[in-house]
Amino acid sequence: MPKKGQAPTANAWPPAIGDEKVKAATGRNWMGWLVILNRANANAMPHKEIAKLYERPAGAKPATPKGYRRGNMMLTNPIINVEGDVATAHLIWTGFMNEGVGKPPTLTEQGREYTELKKVNGKWMISRRFISSDSGLPDKFDATWKPREHR
Question: What is the pTM for the complete model shown?
Answer without folding.
Answer: 0.51
